[in-house]
Amino acid sequence: MSASEHGHGHGDQAGGHGHGEPQSRFIQHHFDDGAHQFESGKLGIWLFLGQEVLFFSALFVAYIIYRHNHPEIFQYAHKYLDVKMGAINTGVLILSSLSAAWAVRAAQLNQQRLLVWCIVVTLLCALGFLGIKYVEYSAKVHHHTLFGKRFAPTEAPDGTEIEQPDATPGKTEGGAPAPKEPLNTVGGVKAQPVPGAAGPPPGSAPVVPGDPAASKEEPASAVSGVGVLPAIEAQKTAGAAIDTHASARPPPNTGMFFTIYFAMTGLHGIHVLGGVIVFIWLLIRSMKGHFGPKYYGPIDFAALYWHLVDLIWIFLFPLLYLIA
Amino acid sequence: MATAATTTHSGSPGDPPEPSYLTVKRGFRNWIVTLDHKRIGVMYLIGITTSFLLGGVFALLVRTELFLPGSQLVNEQQYNQLFTLHGAVMVFLVIIPGLPAALGNFSLPIVLGAPDVAFPRLNLFSFYLWCTGAALLLLSLIINAADTGWTFYTPYSTTTGTAVVPAVGGAFVLGFSSIFTGLNFIVTIHKFKPKGMGWFQMPLNLWGIYSTALLQVLATPVLGITLLLLLVERIGRIGIFDPALGGDPVLFQHFFWFYSHPAVYIMILPAMAVMSDLITTFSHKHIFGYRFIAYSSIGLASLSFLVWGHHMFVSGQSRLAGMVFSALTFTVAIPSAIKVFNWVATLYKADIRLQTPMLYALAFILLFTIGGLTGVFLGALNVDVHLHDSYFVVAHFHYVMMGSALIAFLGALHYWWPKMFGRMFNERVGQVCAILIFIGFNTTFLPQFVLGSRGMARRYFDYDPEFTSFHQVSTVGAFLMGITLVVSFGNLVYSLFRGKRAPRNPWGGSTMEWQAPSPPPLYNFYAHEQPVLYPIYDYSDLYWDETEGGYVRRPGAKPEAEGYEP
Amino acid sequence: MLQYLLTFVVLAQPASGPGAEAEKPATSEAQPADKAAGDKPAAGAAGETKPGDDKAAAPAAATGNPCDKNAPRPTNKPKKTLPPVGPRTDVQSENYWMPVANSDMAEHVDGLFIAILAISIFCFVGITIAVVYFAWKYRSRPGHRAPESSSHNDTLEITWTIIPSIVCVIIFLLGWKGFVDLNTPPKHAYEITIVAEKWKWSYKYPNGWVDENLHVPVGEPVRLIMRSKDVLHSFWVPSFRVKQDVIPNRYTKIWFEAKYPGVYRQYCAEYCGDRHSFMKSLVVVHPPGGFKRYMEEAEAALLDMPPVELGEYLYAARGCNQCHSVDGSAKTGPSWKGIFGETHATSAGQVKVDENYIRESILDPTAKVRTGFNAVMPTFKGQLKDEQIDGLITYIKCLK
User: Fold this and answer.
1) Does ipTM exceed 0.90?
2) Is B245 on the interface with A (CB under 8 A)?
3) Which domains can be identified in chain C, with CATH numbers?
4) A-contacting residues in B 425-464 (Cβ below 8 Å)
5) pLDDT grade for C44, boundaries at 50, 70 and 90
6) What angle do CA B352, B400, B207 make, to 5 degrees?
7) Taking Cα atoms as reference points, which of A85, A48, A17, A78 lies closest to residue A275?
8) Is the pTM above the cut of 0.90?
9) Using the beta-carbon criterion (under 8 Å), do B381 and C176 form an inter-chain contact?
10) Which chain A residues are Cβ-neighbours of B319 within 8 angstroms?
């Protein structure tokens, strides 16, 4: 008994060995037949999707940790996001998933024109998604609601003006015992004074250790298990008591929300772009009639990928836009 | 069937019916776009051994510098760059890809009797990614080599002025090379097993490759996102690891070690797998405890995801986390111990041939035992508090990464060399090198355990004078090992030109690759000679044939019915 | 520029505000410098803000030369000197594997270490003997065949799974207990704050004294509250078997109780850059009464020092020696030898190295970086009092 027979089922794809039916010219030599190739590809794409989930996982973990430690940052900052646009994007992606699934069906049923149109709709939706994301991103650039130190909005989410932090250095407020040096002075990179940013006040000396107005960091204690510094807590409440415009001013380190927002939606957007490229390639091939009932693996696998991209967005949307 | 295999044998001056994979379609251009898994494996092998020599040069420079306290060859910043590049090159370019990409690529389809891996184009793409990653690491070396340590801890890695971006970028790209290789292997094992080879009739080599591939696919993406975040943090100052902006530098460690602990199992599982095959072959006897070894491979792969915090007992993580990780670490020690016992039991009542690959396998057993046992010290919480970041840890991981994984790589390379290139290397030189490498390795790293427990910290350019004598012994051992390694590679390369032609089965292996010609043709087996699946690890019908110059199955030997279990 | 100077002026107030955080007393003891201002007119006066004022030249008034350490003193009392730190007492290892175990917790660690070592040696020797014996006894030779043997034995497998598991559980429990002890300081422990930065350790005592070495009393628990000013470091004292990473913008803690007096090595154990291996200090365990005596003597000596000696002391104690040499050799920063009075090219044009420039370089080091050097010097704003800066200036002036 030759060992070259491979123990696998025959599946839906025709072209099983020994039946004499012509196979698609895209079946590769080392596979027994189309079914073998299809099943291998299917397992392959599921493994790829598994690793994609893990690729995003660290961002979800970071989200959980930072939101657990600083719910006030998330409560405040998510209001800067436009829920309407996010909802439109969600609808657009769901529609594109539908058209991608329909494209697979069309290929299976040899409906070549429908196949092409479904891919076109998928592409248009994907590009629409990217377009709306561009609009959202540029709004954030305009309002200075960006990541990390670049978070420097002049308006609160409800439109009220934000009072800029006090510019006098040397004022003590509860005696912070731990002077902070912004990390970017180590290694020689000078701190850039950013107007109204959570950093040194404009125009002053770049490095002001011991200046409470400059000390805005909060330790992420859940990760470490070490308690929050009591002195910094005191400073926070002291600051809140003194500050009459506390509700308008963002909590310290609100930029962290946008760090996570841009990391998650940015990585997702890169994957959408990747999907766009793949679907353009599939469009060209389907216009040439490469696909049909005997060979539709690439459409199936790309659609699976696309469903995952959609699914990730369906998680991102409520986590970022719909915080209660 | 099997007898047909003996008509074209090694010593014959006649031409084989097909050209081998090495000579069909010659020329650089044909190699660089090849889809043949064997050629891809050979290209990986060339890249990996070159990287190994480069990493080895860095190691010898480090050890020379440490011969005495104070500066000998380099200043402190250059020293930091040396150990960083040594670590990054060895981990990312040599040990992680080593066994799977170079030797696994070559052997896996042939062991299955298949013509190629499931996705040959993806395989080539993985190789291109490896080359890109290597180029990026070299770029970092050329510009201003990174000096962060291969672990890239923040905040140092986000603030230092050296070329961290290409180094991290290179590691990122290499991660995807690893992911795609793993993906390829999982699908190949699932979909290309021959009829009659169920999961428990697979050679243990494949169990190891399979477990490794699962880790490659599931763990490496976390490294990918971690390094990506590090790059964005360094370039864009997004703040995710920056405490001044609300971030947490310890979070980087969690993310990093979530991959890097499974990574060390990516390094050791293929090594254990190949060693299982080697030990049984050279014992000319079935392996002892097949199922337990198979299950322990999967067990190690699963448990390896749960123990990352044992690299971080003193990092500032909570005491509860420390306790949980310590407890889980002890659970992951047990499957490794089971394997060692099973290998030793395989030697019992065997028929042992102490040829070069077997010497490496026996060295592996002993060195892995030391490596694994010293891990127990590091799993115990309060002992680890003292030993963490000391030379004890350096010695431990060199025992498992070099003394085990690399020794296994060398053993496997010698094992499959005749199959890959159709030549026998000089056996005496091979044996002497194996013994000298064993001696040199222990000379280098045994003193380092004592250095560590006595108080010598790692990544130190300068040290207190009381540590000098241990460092000197270690340096001497390192040079002995380095020279011997070069000689052993030279022995292999020399065989390409002057080695005796190899038979199909020089060692008496029972797995399917030993039925293929040495070296195999393009589709691994001649068209008229499909391989036969024999019961796993059954040597009863294998005997030495003088005319063939190798082992053959007794003519008329019948394969057992399907479902045979060892 | 004006704001710059105003910042200096405002922050140079040593007695209150963030500028004095380094010297903040936990007891009611006043600032040593303030006290000195009342006693001796010669020592640097608190509250004075004019930098470079040569008030500190008074002890050498007889000769007018600030560099003369042996100038006749204003009183007849002999000059107080800083108590010296003796040589290390832990160079020789107590046993083959470990340095001296200077606490009960260290002894527990050693006990567990030796137990694991014994088990490991037993296992390793056992396996080696088995491998070597089998390889010899069952070696292939003409006529030899592998005798019949079974391919598996579930009882054996279970046995050699269960026994190591039990051993591992015991080791885990012992290790855990020791770890819990390590993280549970007694309530009455003496607290010392440690600040780690590239590349020096600063030990700040409750009375405001800042030292470059860790001084502790014998037989009393000491708790260390640690933070980093820049990257990750790790505080390791091998003789106590204690180690803890030191993290920026967060406090981590560790404690120990020394059993025997002596001088023990302390290392940084988390890679932190170029001079990571030079970032070490000493743990000085004082015999009973010695610790209190040391603290009193140290403060007194410091107050008594002429500025040039104070500068020399600070050069080592505050870590300037990590990056600046005094013999002309090149390091991360410019050598101080002969530098005073020279004119250099800097990032802000040509600059004469005078008192003002030195003061500025201490408080705002990235303002005018000398060409050929990187802007890596951390600031000492809030960490050096005016008298200390005066002392450094005088010291630099005297380095010909």
Assistant:
1) yes
2) yes
3) 1-12+77-138+185-304 (2.60.40.420), 305-397 (1.10.760.10)
4) none
5) very low
6) 65
7) A48
8) no
9) yes
10) 225
